[in-house]
Amino acid sequence: MSKKSLWNDESGVILSAEIVLIGTILVLGMLVGLVELQSGIVAELSDLSSAFGNLNQSYMVPGFASSKGSGGWKARTYGASYWDRVDNCDCDCSMSIVCNDPGEVSK
Question: Higher confidence at residue 19 or residue 85?
Answer without folding.
Answer: 19
